[in-house]
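Two entries, shown back to back:
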Amino acid sequence: MGTNQKHYAGDGRHTDSYYAASANPAPERPPLVGAHEVDVCVVGAGYSGLSTALHLAEKGYNVAIVEGARVGWGASGRNGGQIVNGLNASLQTIKKRYGQDTATFVAGLVQEGGEIIRERIKTYNIQCDLKDKNIFTGLTKAHMKELEERKTLWESYGINNQEMLDKAQLREHINSDLYEGGLIDHSGGHMHPLNLALGEAAAFEMLGGKIYEMSMVTAVDTEAARPVVTTTQGSLTCKTLVLCGNAYLGHVVPTLTSRVMPVSTQVMATEPLGEELAHSLLPQDACVEDIRYILDYYRLSGDKRMLFGGGTVYGGADPLDIEAKLRGNMEKVFPQLKKVKVDYAWSGNFALSFSRVPQMGRIGKNTYFAHGYSGHGVTGSHTFGRILSEAIDGDVSRFDVFENVPWYPFPGGRLFRVPYSVMGSWWYGLRDRLGV
């Protein structure tokens, strides 16, 4: 996520979030100045870029990352911090659109991102408050049927980590009367997202990688035999270029502009609740999201704050009052929090693809890209980073599958894609409210 585009060209400081306030110490890296050459240049120091770069550094490649602000400035440092398996588009949807082979392929990697995150945390001793389990909640009988079908479908692909929870069982995890029940994924989890990004950046640098911060990309030459990235103060020529700007790449690469749309979502953090109140709300300390089209998602931080997120603004604008937008939803779930103070509230962008399936591809011979995780970027970006590194290292077997998945532009083009999406959001929101 991230704030309005104007911030991106500013001082590059992290947004005023709980994550930034509780971030582990990290150096401020210098900008790219002058002309340089490198084997692989990665644009964007979020999860996609960091994952790609770290995998390649482990393979011995000479890699540099160019970042317009600071490491983890965008989605990777602002998101809900939930390790949720799967894509935005369901396996059933993928099967209907792209066939059984593609669905089977995707099912084989939907848990990979979480596994990569845990491996990174363990291997590089990243301190980011890692905790286990995530829960999907249903508010209606129709939602519960949908969760039952999801569990059955995933089991048909050999994924057996999920367990249905009836209303009474759910109360052992979430002290709220709002839900009919839920589905717990024992392989899910949550963590401090900015500290994960900072830890991955430190691991990359430990292996010899170079990160240039505050280096806004102004031009990209993907047609040259050796791609060139130009910034406000320098340039980087490389054998292979990887574009991981996601919702913040702007119009620097017009080929990619129509593929995704920035969408903002919001998060707020209460004051520390104390052990007793926090435990009474979420006794098992799992993270939670409901399955409505415009959903709530929440969890406890390492210092026992309630981190509560939700809301959607197509086009990427920020609401004027984030707390006012989210507080009512939080109090519907937990009336116990009516008098609790909110210390932080922030907004940011993720990149939405029209099909809700993330996209990976190539521009010319030597430029790769990955984007469009559609709200499921924490795990998806780590998986895609590994797949990109495999392709650059010569194994394109998994890359080719995603590159060949058809993508579709938003109806109405750039001018009307926001109102079209708002209308669709209203329709699905109405279905949620009617329980159908």
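entry 2 starts here
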Amino acid sequence: MSIHPELFMPELFQILLLLVLLFQSISKLETFRNDASWVPWGAAVGIGVAFFSLHVQGTMFHGVYSVDATSQFFKLAVSIGFFIGTLNATRQPTLEREKETDYFLFLAFSALGLMFLASSVELITIYIALEISSYSLYAIIPVRAKDRKAAEAGIKYILFGAIATAISLYGLGFILAGQHSSYLSELASADWTWASNPLAVVGLSLFLAGMFYKLALFPFHFWCPDVYEGASNETAAYVATLPKLGAVVVLVRLAALVQPGMAVTMIFAVLGAVSMTIGNLAALAQTDVKRMLGYSSVSHAGYIMLGLVAGTADGLASAAFYSLVYILMNLTCFWVVCKTAQDGENIALKDLNGLSRRAPVMALVLAVAAFALVGLPPTAGFTGKLFLFTSAWNHGYNWFVIVAAVNAAISIYYYLSLVRHAYTAEEEGPEESPHIPVSAMSRVWGSVLAAAILLLGMVPGPVFDLASLAGQHLLP
């Protein structure tokens, strides 16, 4: 078995980052052990490593680990999300300083698992990588200064995760029994119809449960709003974004196995339509911003299904592109939540009243993120939805596109309510709502994120071309 280090440089760099954090965590020098302020800048270097590895290709470990256009695109996306997530998580008000290094260690471990997941092309390897990315999150979700809701969120995440894992393993057994292989390259030429191989179809549907859980797709979405609400703002920002990249890359690879009109593809479409509808309707009733974003993520999981059911390279490219856009939009929204929350507490809609006067830069950043989540031009959210809608149209799922368009209209109400509260709602007591102390660097990075959303919306070509390479690799 030949190993070529140049094929997995992003993973090697992430492992190096992990080893440094591990050494720092067990160090006896207190000043060294408790100083993790360098981690975001190490993560920034990781973006460069992932970028320069974009065009590397090859297979390793007896064909279970593939380095291709798909994996490298998602590794770059994970690196970007990890950088923003760690930058957002520095100096958390609800995290004791002595736990900061361990906290970043778990985040880095989760990101490494997602990178493994991006290159996994064999079902058992996919399962192991998924668990690597999940275990660390089980540890950090309850960490919120002895908050009972955080403990409840941790328990729910573990219980739902255990159920999803068990169902996935059960489905894996069915796939092995029905198709006699766990390699995606061999499964691509297999029969996935109810008539000839119902056992395999049932197995694939069950195996996807683990991915649906990570993506917060109906009916595996119940944990999502509760975990977002209970976890610290910074942890919720990470859980709401990066794990979804891992789910999307696996779903993109598995979607290449089936064609439009097949039973499994129809399951994708139905679950996607139900997920976006339930997510949007539930979000309308929320007053806690993080719970609203939780149900919002349920609806966005449905939008991603549009690209997966199209059965074309453009569809898979659109799903990959939208997943990157989604983490950028959501992390920007959470950036405002984290930087304007007093003492790390949850933010309700009423707490945003007068934000344009108390923190004008953050109010503008929030407005850009909200417009993008709605899908208004010229933001990246509009471009991403446009790519998804056009990729699924005239491929047998026009009804799905219509449902998605209606749901996009429904989402206008609760997304723009964020802007309404920030700019037009009257403060209940102006004299009791002082200026929010947001650091200059927080304002700068928030502005950078907002600018990235606008730039990606107006000039999506270079990034979408990278996503197209990933789609063409799977469906030429």
